[in-house]
Amino acid sequence: MNSQPAAESAAPVTDAVRWTQIVVGIVCMVAAANIQYAWTLFVPEIQATHGWTRASIQTAFTIFVVVQTWLTPIEGYFIDKYGPKVIVAAGGFFTGLSWIVDSYAGTLAMLYVGSAIGGIGVGCVYATCVNNALKWFPEKRGLAVGLTAGGYGAGSALTILPISAMIHSSGYQSAFFWFGLVQGAIIICAALFLRMPQKEQVKASTKVAQTRRDYTLGEAVRTPVFWVMWAMFIGTVTGGLMAVAQLGVIAHDLGVKEAPVSVFGLTMAALPFALMLDRVMNGISRPLFGFISDHIGREATMFVAFTLEGVGIIMLSRFGHDPMMFLILSGMVFLAWGEVYSLFSATSADTFGTKHAGKIYGVLYCAKGVAALLVPLGNLLMEATGTWATVLYVTATMDLTAAACALLVLKPMLARHHARNEELARRAEHGDATRAVPVGAAAGTANG
Fold first, then answer.
1. pTM (two decimals)
2. Which residue, 79, 75, 156, is CA-closest to 363?
3. Residue 265: CB partners within 8 Å, gap ≥ 6?
């Protein structure tokens, strides 16, 4: 039974109420972001303290991403059943607990347990807030999801320096403990303000093709377009995850980690400067490309962004030895990478409807878990070839392939998908369909 109160759900809402939901979701995402995006700061300290190999420590990051992504379909089921408030509050508890466990981890096994707990917590927060944004703003789906996901992408920019300072002054264990405690508490408090809309409270886009049919999960995964998006997701997210997990290592191996960089009178070491800039660019990209996709279409936006990411990765491999170029090009990669989380979620809702969006996008989001399994292979490939250039060229090729697929494969498939649904809906309305087609309240157009 859905826990959303009937009276609250049926009440009319203003744009202010709708935007409040987005703001609360962003707060939750910002508080959950550090588990993924500040991880690279802890790896050298953990290695120096315990003497564990770099690859074994990075396995914890892989476990986190795999758990976060592969449990999303289950979390989607509970989101639809109990609403966002309960699920995000549970996510806040597990998010805080994760870093507290990490602060006491004296063995790799305990570190892995902490990572798994973090995957559960961040998965609950991320999946719920994105799902809520999809439902509140179907007419501005790309922007709403982009802003929400942007909180996750840029959130750690606020705490990179404080975390780094605490690591150096009090040890990485203290940073894990206190930031875990604060972040978990913020998420739990913010969760109290979340709720889902009723279908009649929102209106569909007039610029982007959106299905009138609410697909079930089983129906969605039986469509070829779902698996094309799944493969493209893997191709584009791998390079970004590689950069997130390995940027500190790459900077060290390129010899620019401690090199000073000056921009507008501000001088910092290249790595922390790049980490801050990258988080900001990552956060900007999600609402920026989401907004663009609301106006020119998802597929065209994908082509531009994925091409930019691929070119940026190639240039990073060629010119990353220069501290300033390392700063600029890593920012370019993160600018082009962050949008995958707004574009694919919005495209999924456009294609399959919002009634079961949590479960459907949850399965699509599992592609990130598959990509995470490829991250440790980057270390192995680098060790085998003696250079990061090989790794970066492989990920760039994946990005450029996905960019081509956006226009040459996905766009015509979606056009046929929406045209077929419109025809079935038209036939059902005229009583001459062979079987009824479930039609959602959020009507869209097929002009894309």
1. 0.74
2. 75
3. none
